[in-house]
Amino acid sequence: MISHIFYQTDIPRYLRKTGLFKQALTKGLKKFARQNIEVNVIFVDEKEILRINKEFLDHHYVTDVISFNHERPPFETEEPWAFGDIFVCYQVARKNAKNFNHTFLQEMMMYVTHGALHLSGMDDHDPKDRAEMDRQAEKIIKGLL
User: Fold this and answer.
1) Per mean pLDDT, which range of 3-7, 29-33, 63-67, 125-129 is the poorest?
2) Whole-model pTM?
3) Rounded to whole angstroms, how far apart are CA atoms 86 and 68?
4) In CA terms, which of 28, 98, 105, 131 is 20 to 30 Å from 116?
5) Which own/partner contact pairs does 136-140 have at CB distance under 8 Å and 24+ positions apart?
């Protein structure tokens, strides 16, 4: 797996834990992390996450994380293929960290892991599934911090 972490918003240097984010991404992707894939995590501000929500999901509100799963190419290739993009809103993480009694870093890792779990096939459309995703994400993060 090839992973990239992009900081497209002002995030303090002490929170730019690229290695930890990549580890959370790998653990969240599970079996897919061993495939020849490429995943991007992009930290953005509220304005950008709102733009993405409007343009691609027809949602007119700010969210914490959005993940896009790309389809496998229709041909065999030795080159990595784009598997997914995860957009994380740093400002929402900063606000929600207080609400959930997390550090900023824990909340940011929660969103990276949550996005990775979505890319690996998990869903959170009902409360039971959401609780399971949160449990899996918390377990991954606890193992890394």
Assistant:
1) 29-33
2) 0.90
3) 6
4) 98
5) 136/28, 137/28, 137/110, 137/113, 138/110, 140/24, 140/27, 140/28, 140/113
